[in-house]
Specification:
The complex is a heterodimer of chains A (105) and B (158).
Chain A lengths: L5 E8 L2 E8 L22 E8 L2 E8 L8 E7 L6 E8 L4 E7 L2
Antiparallel strand pairs in A: 1-2, 2-5, 3-4, 3-6, 6-7
Chain B lengths: L1 H24 L14 H5 L3 H6 L8 E2 L3 E4 L3 E2 L5 E7 L4 E8 L6 E7 L3 E9 L5 E9 L2 E11 L7
Parallel strand pairs in B: 1-9, 3-9
Antiparallel strand pairs in B: 2-4, 4-7, 5-6, 5-8, 8-9
Classes of the chains: A mainly beta (105), B alpha+beta (158).
């Protein structure tokens, strides 16, 4: 089983659920040079993050390599209830992907 | 003999996979098949107007103070600049985040789905002191606001 790379916290207050997610990823821009070889380190970054809850896609986020390493994402949506699942999945520009789920507290 | 053949096929397979991986990473193989709707034109544009035209369907934006950008006045570390964007506008379809001082200004796009609220946060790399620009698409129109952030150490590894 691949190591899970996403930490998720989801909390509902009134009608609004706030989700905070921290993903593990190098987020290489493709502009950095490897100090030893002098070659450019190829771009390797999460380019799409999808969040779903209750069968709906609540947020789709597109990123470039300019998002910081180990990217943090926080967003809000309405209509979530305590105990519902929030699933966050990401794909990167090299075809990698991962996903994680958390319950709304 | 059998093991040899298996080994050859395995090596061949992993070499091929490795090459594909490197090629995609190097941008040689157009990764359109790999990535769903990643707005390539927007993220590769070198100017803010082109970035907006490349994905949000328009280049003109209307300045709006109803878009709140929360970001440090001075970013100690340009590699990790926390930015939050929120707006009370109704009918928000998407929020775009750009860093005017980066080579490719478009950094992130948040497309709100069912029940999405226009309040998003993330951390970005800023190459140098410049404006963080937030563009909100609401009711088919683009609204923008910007905030200047001073960067002491550039965040793109340069």
């Amino acid at each position: 089983m691949a190591k899970k790379s996403i930490k998720i916290r989801a909390k509902v207050k009134g009608d609004v659920t706030t989700v905070k997610a921290l993903m593990n990823h190098p987020m290489e821009t493709g502009l950095r040079k490897d100090k030893k070889t002098g070659k450019l380190i190829p771009a390797h970054f999460i380019n799409e993050v999808k969040a779903t809850s209750g069968g709906n896609t609540v947020m789709t986020t597109y990123w470039s390599g300019a998002v910081s390493k180990n990217p943090y994402l926080s967003f809000k949506f309405t209509g979530g209830n305590k105990g519902d699942d929030v699933e966050i999945s990401w794909t990167d520009n090299q075809g990698g992907s991962d996903s994680g789920t958390a319950k709304i507290k | 003999m059998n093991t040899n053949m298996k080994r050859r096929v395995f090596l061949k397979g992993s070499l091929a996979a490795g090459t594909v991986g490197v090629a995609v990473g190097a941008g040689l193989l157009a990764p359109q098949a790999v990535m769903a709707a990643w707005p390539k034109a927007a993220f590769e544009a070198k100017s803010i107007e082109d970035a907006l035209g490349g994905s949000l369907g328009g280049k003109q934006t209307e300045q709006s103070d109803d878009i709140k950008i929360k970001a440090p006045d001075i970013a100690e570390n340009g590699a990790v600049v926390p930015v939050s964007i929120s707006t009370g506008m109704a009918d928000v379809e998407s929020v775009a985040l750009l860093s005017a001082g980066n080579e490719s200004p478009m950094v992130a796009q948040f497309v709100l789905g069912a029940g999405g609220v226009a309040d998003v946060s993330t951390r970005i790399k800023m190459a140098k002191t410049g404006d963080v620009v937030a563009v909100v698409k609401s009711g088919g129109k683009l609204y923008a606001n910007r905030k200047s952030v001073k960067v002491t150490i550039g965040g793109c590894g340069g």
